[in-house]
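Standup notes
- DV: blocked on the single-chain target, sequence here:
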Amino acid sequence: MQPIICMDKNVISLSHGSGGLISRELVEGLFLKRFHNNALMDLEDASILNLPMEKIAFTTDSFVVNPIFFPGGDIGRLAVCGTVNDLSMMGAKPLYLSVGFIIEEGFLIEDLKKIVDSMGEAAEEAEVSIVCGDTKVVERNAADNIFINTAGIGVIPEDVDISVKNAVPGDVIIVNGNIGDHGIAVLSQRKGLHFKTYIKSDVAPLNGLTALMIQKTRNIHTMRDPTRGGLATTLKEIAIGSNVGIEIDEERIPVSEGVRKACELLGLDWLYLANEGKAVVVVPEEEGEQLIETMKRHPYGEGAKIIGRVVPNSPGIVTMRNAYGVRRVIEMLAGEQYPRIC
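- DV (later): unblocked, structure below
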């Protein structure tokens, strides 16, 4: 005789992670409805995928952002966009994602629906399919509301070779818009801060933008998304990976006035703020301006600017020149400027 289960249907219970009837109801009633595609519908132990015969890019990431809802996005949109962007920075066309949920007992079903809807919308925007997943429920206080893991597969054209090792002297460095918005948006929501200027996260899938760029030129040497550690850490990684020097111009770096003022108030350095919809792009100087024109045709590239260049001297060193001509050495972020930003 089956036991009678009494529970609040508005919150996640341990039964939702049991693998039984209630788990099935959650999967079919919520996840399948939002992530509908043929590979997922059969609920096999693994999805069967058809991949073009090209180079394959494969990545995974986990998302533990606090708070889970913030201006401009939430943990669901962040999870999809973060993995799509990791693939895109290698020149890949993202195709398929997996998703794993670790949910704390007592989490509101309504909040889970919002997150799943947000993931579905982001996947539709990026034109990727969420083809497999898993849900685990842990006891109260064993997690922090919800954690999400995603993995992604994409294909890279044979004539595309983008790597942190490929920057060479004479290249220019481009960013596609204002930096630091995500870091300030999450921090303001976490701390209950209010600024005169509304600051929202830049979280966005960049594969449409990067596809346009690759159509324009196959000579993109390096692309990186400046997430944790911000622009400064990303530039340092490129300098070390390619064994080159990098010089950037502070006045050329796009930063909103709201982010600048928030950093002044909070004692933060916008160079190290996290971003979730930005790309650092390294290309030959002769192709830089034409590539920017192409980028500006896409909504996520409208703010594209050249901010610096790759130089032969001082390998592994990044310097920034300010308005007075004074140069400052830029290092990687040491420790955490603030925790759980993605």
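- Follow-up: Residues 171-330 form a domain with the Phosphoribosyl-aminoimidazole Synthetase; Chain A, domain 2 fold (CATH 3.90.650.10).
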